[in-house]
Design brief:
The chain is of the alpha/beta class. It has 14 helices and 17 strands. The strands form 4 sheets. It has an 8-stranded mixed sheet with strand order 5-6-4-1-7-11-12-10, with helices on both faces. It has a 5-stranded mixed sheet with strand order 14-13-15-16-17, sandwiched between helices. Strands 2-3 form a two-stranded antiparallel sheet. β2 and β3 form a beta hairpin. α2 packs across α4 and α7 packs parallel to α9. The longest helix is centred in the first third of the chain and has 24 residues.
Length: 382
């Protein structure tokens, strides 16, 4: 038995293959999920639901033949399918006496600090009101290739779990566990019940993409686990069609694969920096990088080049070794690159900082941290 009695807040992600039936959404399954979530709600657990299925439902409604690969057509299918999908959820949860809310997200919303904080406050309010937030990628207006921003919502669900400080992420899929090799191709494949570290062997076992209507697969789920691990969040991968799967998981039954983080939980701001999409790159010399590794600020003198256009407060790459929040915008950095700190305010004005990045706003991709109050990490981040 697993002890999950301490779980108070969890994120449940339902994949397209699990949710679909005959080219559309399985209404009976949605009702079943609503009933399971209601049981958890009665246990005073807060549940956020991340759902796929809008594109698939649009494909079925428009009677198109898949796979649909053209971006405009997939966006159109999402626009048709999303309200129908939410109607299914609204009806199902209403029968359980619960209200739901629709939250459509893009990668930009999670990367911008202001919009991220607004989102977090909104979700906290919904949970406190007893509402079940239902989140999905806003595929109909996504400017990126659908499926690359979040990866069939696996990445999105992990980001939501991280940003909302969830205790557990449950990935409901059409396979009952992570196997040591593809069970569809190898009858002797064995399930892996516990994973404490994402090794090369685990990554190889994950394989590639899944069903034609989805964009995810086991690989995107392993990537999601890596994100959840930085938040100290446990992850369970399980078959979404297993009877009463959610209450049984929370009761401690050994269902699916449990991913148990061993690494230290990063502070929320560090996680936001780490998982945000960088808006540009600051290139620095070896001496400046060595200083950053010693918990020093990034001074303009060590900057050799700027790539991209971004505002102050944006998340950027530093070389290819770290992500950071910049104190100056790209035009200002261009003006002061290579200059001594004493010249900064003379060039930009007295209200500007004389450093480009402060130590507490830097996260190294190899897992080492510049924050003296944060224990050094040994796990590599995605």
């Amino acid at each position: 038995m697993r002890d999950l009695s301490s779980i108070k807040r969890l994120v449940v992600k339902i994949g397209t293959a699990t949710l679909s039936k005959n080219g559309g959404v399985d209404t009976d399954y949605v009702q079943n999920i609503a009933h399971q979530v209601a049981q958890l709600h009665q246990q005073d657990r807060q549940v956020l639901l991340v759902t796929s299925g809008a594109i698939g439902m649009g494909v079925g409604t428009l009677k198109l033949k898949g796979p649909i690969t053209e971006l405009p057509l997939r966006q159109a299918c999402a626009a048709v399918g999303q309200p129908l999908l939410m109607h299914e959820y609204h009806q199902a949860f209403s029968k359980e006496g619960l209200s739901v809310s629709q939250v459509l997200l893009t990668a930009e919303v999670l990367s911008k600090r202001k919009s991220y904080l607004n989102l977090r406050r909104a979700l906290e309010t919904l949970l406190n009101l007893g509402v079940i937030p239902i989140l999905n990628e806003n595929d109909s207006i996504s400017t990126a290739e659908i499926g690359t921003a979040f990866g069939d919502n696996d990445r999105l669900s992990a980001l939501v779990a991280s940003k909302m400080d969830a205790d557990l992420l449950i990935l409901l899929t059409d396979i009952d566990a992570l196997y040591d090799k593809n069970p569809r191709e190898h009858p002797d494949a064995k399930p892996i019940r516990l994973v404490e570290e994402i090794t090369d062997e685990i990554t190889r076992a994950a394989g590639k993409k899944g069903s034609p209507l989805s964009t995810g697969g086991m690989k995107t789920k392993i990537d999601a686990v890596r994100i959840a691990f930085t938040a100290g969040c446990r992850v369970i991968l399980a078959h979404g069609r297993r009877e009463n799967v959610l209450p049984r998981i929370l009761a401690g039954e050994e269902i699916g694969t449990l991913f148990l983080p061993k690494s230290h939980k990063l502070p929320n701001r560090k996680r936001w920096i780490l998982h945000s999409r960088p808006e540009g790159t600051i290139y620095i010399d070896a001496g400046a990088m060595a200083a950053l590794r010693k918990n020093k600020s990034l001074l303009p003198k060590g900057i050799t080049a700027i790539e991209g256009t971004f505002d102050a407060g944006a998340v950027v790459m530093i070389n290819q070794e770290a992500k950071a929040v910049t104190s100056l915008n790209s035009a200002e950095l261009q003006q002061v690159a290579g200059k001594h700190s004493s010249q900064i305010r003379k060039i930009l004005g007295p209200e500007h900082r004389d450093v480009a990045v402060v130590p507490e706003d830097i996260v190294f991709l190899d897992g080492s941290q510049t924050d003296k109050n944060t224990p050094k990490q040994t796990r590599k981040f995605p």
